From TrEMBL:
One Pfam assignment: OmpA
PANTHER family: LIPOPROTEIN YIAD-RELATED, STATOR ELEMENT OF FLAGELLAR MOTOR COMPLEX
SUPFAM superfamilies hit by this protein: OmpA-like (SSF103088)
Top-rank taxon: Bacteria
Keywords assigned: Cell projection, Cilium, Flagellum, Membrane, Transmembrane, Transmembrane helix
OmpA-like domain span: 136-283
Species: Phyllobacterium sophorae
The protein's name: Flagellar motor protein MotB
Transmembrane segments: 21-40
Amino acid sequence: MRGAGRARRQEEEEESVFISMADLTISFLFILMILLAFFASRFNVSDTVARDEYDRLKDELRLVQKTVNAPDLRVAAPVEAMKEELDRLRARVTPEGPNPMEIYNSAVAETRKKLLRNLRDEINARIKGLDVQISANFDALQLSGAGLFESGREIPTPAGSARMRQIAQILGEYLGCYALGPGRTFSPDCNDAYALIDALQVEGHTDNLGGDNLNMDLSAKRAASIYALMTEQRPDLILYSNREAQPILSVAGYGKGRPIQTNDSTAGRDANRRIDLRFIMVVPSKEADISSIKRALSEGP
């Protein structure tokens, strides 16, 4: 009898261990499924989730939770069902294939970098005394220093005017491959990413001498004077347009708020009295926009 009692206690202990391990496994799986269901409910190729899809995933999550809370969790069948559901949710969170939006936007960013490098190298090679730099975000050319503007003046110096006319000429040789309008010269050979410029801002800047309002007004006037000078040199610059048939060339003034060098020296203040040319590219809001951008560049508006 004592032997039978010990055998029964051993069986009870083994069953208790099995139940504890099963409970632990189920709890762990349930936590994983909650996390995966959360990410699945938030994931969508275009970074948005339709309401009906969101509600459906919530209903599925309630069913999973109901299964987890059932009294017969210690049997193998519910555990296997939960594993299958876990695999399904994992596949939902990790979609097949790359994201077309990410691929396109990444290619456009690289194309803009290449365009800015080509423009910088071309300008620096053809215009002596003007050290053109690319902004830290790889989205603008910074035309600084070398006496582009005298302190407090909105009209560029004679030397600055001559250099900006040359820059306008160089821009006219490049923009056609990245813009729409009568001057469109698109070819995959020069723009294989099908990158499209939405706006090309002529941005004026000042040093820190003078008040905020004065410098904001001065920077806007500097941008406007350079815009007038460039379009006088290359009238076709105003014909380049974006998808909305709007001219891509525009002006903006930023006052003294975005210096690229310290204002504590004469050379630094001279560098900050500058013009930036900022290239703002079209960013599609949905995957279907990519096709329309490529069609516009290939066939025209």
